Amino acid sequence: MSVKNVLRKKICDYISNLTGKEIVESMVKSTPSVDLGDFAFPCFVLGGNPVDSSLDLKSKIEAEMPDFIEKVESKGPYLNFFLNRVNYSNSVLRESKNLSHISSKNKKVIIEYSQANTHKAFHVGHLRGTCLGESLARVLKFAGYDVTQVNYQGDTGIHVAKWIWCYKNFHSSEEIPVENREQWIASIYVDAVKRLKEGTPEEDTAGLDEVRKINQHIENRDDAEIVKFWQETRQWSLDAFELIYKDLGAHFDNYFFESEMESEAKAIVKELVDSNVAKIDDGASIIDLDDLGIWVLLRKDGTTLYSAKDLALAKRKKEMYSPDISVYVVGAAQSLHFRQLFETLKRIKFPNSDSLFHLAYAEVRLPTGKMSSRTGQNVLYSDMKEDVWNLAYGETKKRHEDWSEDRIRNVTQAIMIAALKFDMISKDSNKMIVFDPQKACEFEGETGPYLQYVCARINSLLNKAGNSSEFKVDSISDVDYRLLLLLDDFYDVVEDTADKQKIFLLCKYSVTLSKLFNEFYHSCNISNEEDLVLKNFRIALVEATKIVLGKSLDLLGIDVLEEM
């Protein structure tokens, strides 16, 4: 628990109004000027006369004041707190060295993310969703939520039928590669799109008819040869995805598949039609969502669309996990779909339908422009990984020619993943990313490798300076105090990140902490400090920074390196 939280709790002890207590959680803030103290609480948020509230709270807190508070002042509607820097530093160092999960929220959260489709590419867009989802799950767990992580993969549908059609007609004589199979699978889907020319004057109507038949055979499971081939090729994609998830440290408690939802989806649609929530229009099953438009659930031929399957998935999640909150980490291009899904679930009075959240993320582009899995103008994860790997490998080998090849490659792997992940999550999810491999790998600036570099610098410093021992300082300098204040912000940042589902807030904190530590590092020559009391205090401060920064990176899914 941060020192600010101890202060909040103290204020809450004297507030009987529950709404007031909830407000206190967010309203104890750092002051803009040291003349106004270190923290302030605006009493006007409590209602009534704020000046009277300020004076009343002041007298109550002074009667039972925490040792880290030097004095309390009532300034009109504000209650200002001045810290005892020495006692405050002891509290912060103690808390920072014993980081623990925040108290349980007693809420179940299910997070669905990644959702790579079989028979298609796992590209940089999937990478962003996977990194965001994994980090959010870690943050929510640390913030006290009971979290279940799931993946929902599209293993059936028109895209799969197109792939099978293209393979059987144009690629069946090719030797199936053992390595780099992901790229080969993706290339066949792109070829299928090009050959079918769907929606153009040159559209291959005969080919599309065959594709629709293949899709029906897969969904109805009535053609043994096609079903067997679908299952075999499906597994090729799933195996390739698992290698990527291992790279990224992505963990899933359960995998759901579209193929598992088809029969349940049809049953749900029948219920919706029977209850007049949906209707049959020109053979298709649809639901009119007014301002959100017409949502098609089943095609004319009876095959299920993504919409109906998502209704079945929501039901399956509820039956298996009974979540209080359900988060869908999916690209912003699907925003209308999720608005339609959530509206439909509200209409049928689905449990906790007001606690469904679409964490939308904007697309990822390269400096050369937009990417598309339909045209092939995209970057596969495997290709991007190779580019970043080569950059990280070259930099690592240049710095450590004395290292063994295995050590260089292990460190390169960690740097590569840090570069990729941080670039995917360090901006607000609603903002587009232009991914530049060169910039992502830089050891300076707001990058994953920079954060790892600071951790390595901290480790090097502690190796030279030794461990801290008992100390009792009489005063705290401004440079030390600034670092202490930021360390004390860690729990607040985690809570804020979890509440807002904004991973970039924790990224921003990690960068700020790293930069401030570097300022501290350059201004304090700890190894040669002659004042042993001050030296031991600052070593303890460095140790606390290592723990807090290390935990921040762990929550972001980035490995800490002892040496770079």
Q: Percent range for helical residues? A: 40-55%
Oligomer: single chain
Q: How can the largest sheet be summarized? A: 5 strands, parallel
**What general form does the structure show?**
flat
Q: Which structural class do the helices and strands define?
A: alpha/beta
- Extract low-pLDDT stretches: none
- Give the mean pLDDT: 91
Please state how the strands of the largest beta sheet are arranged side by side. 7-6-5-11-12
The percentage of residues in β strands lies in 5-15%
Number of helices: 20
Termini distance? 32 Å
What is the CATH fold-level name of the domain at 382-556?
A: Isoleucyl-tRNA Synthetase, Domain 1
CATH homologous superfamily identity of the domain at 382-556: Isoleucyl-tRNA Synthetase, Domain 1
CATH class of the domain at 382-556: Mainly Alpha
Under the CATH scheme, the architecture of the domain at 382-556 is Orthogonal Bundle
Evaluate the radius of gyration: 28 Å
Question: Count of DSSP E strands?
Answer: 14
How is the topology of this model organized?
Blueprint: H1 3-12, H2 18-27, E1 29-30, E2 39-42, H3 50-62, E3 69-75, E4 78-83, H4 85-96, E5 108-112, H5 124-142, E6 146-153, H6 158-171, H7 181-196, H8 205-220, H9 224-248, E7 254-257, H10 262-274, E8 279-281, E9 284-288, E10 294-298, H11 306-321, E11 325-331, H12 335-347, E12 356-361, E13 364-365, H13 381-399, H14 405-425, E14 433-434, H15 437-440, H16 448-465, H17 478-488, H18 490-500, H19 503-523, H20 532-556
Parallel strand pairs: 5-6, 5-11, 6-7, 11-12, 13-14
Antiparallel strand pairs: 1-2, 2-4, 3-4, 8-9, 9-10
